[in-house]
Amino acid sequence: MGPLAGLKVIEFVGLGPAPFCGMLLADMGAEVLLIDRKRAPERPGVEQFSPGPASVARRGKRSVMLDLRAPEAVQTALRLIAGADLLIEGFRPGVMERLGLGPDVCLGANPKLLYGRMTGWGQTGPLAHSAGHDVNYTALSAILHCGARADGVPWAPPSLLGDMAGGMMLAFGLACALNEVRSSGKGQVIDAAMIDAASLFLHGVYGAFAAGYWDLKPGTNLLDSGAPFYDVYRCADNKWISLGPLEPAFYSLMLEKLGLAGDPLFEDQFDKRRWPERKERIAEIIRTKTREEWCRLLEGTDVCFAPVLDLAEAPQHPHQQAREGFIRLNGVTQPAPAPRFSRTSAAVRSPPSMPGEGADEALRDWGFTDSEVAGLRATGALG
Question: Final residue of a domain: which of 273, 308, 343?
Answer without folding.
Answer: 308
